[in-house]
Amino acid sequence: QLVESGGGLVQPGGSLRLSCAASGFGVDYYAIGWFRQAPGKEREGVSCIDIMNRTTYYTDSLKGRFTISRDKAKKLVYLQLNSLKPEDTAVYYCAAAPEYCDLGYFSSWGQGNQVNVSS
Known about the structure:
Elements: E1 2-5, E2 8-10, E3 16-22, E4 30-37, E5 44-49, E6 55-57, E7 66-71, E8 76-81, E9 90-98, E10 108-109, E11 113-117
């Protein structure tokens, strides 16, 4: 089971750091991806980090504002969100896939964490 935290309400231009924790398995042995779904839109991939700590950004426009990282000691995967825009408002999910960031293999999902960007 995956659990996201760190979401909330932030003003445009602000920052948030989302965390993804796992219970029942070690995140070190899985690729962890972040996805988001905005109201009325399909879910989209944001970023992923694999077991070799190589990172993938599925949406070019987010690279440079969003950064994924892994803390092995704390068994957490983070998504740092900077320079947030209203269009970043969405439910953010983390998900696990075996070893590598293959979009077709994410099978364990968290419940989602709401991020609202508004003044």
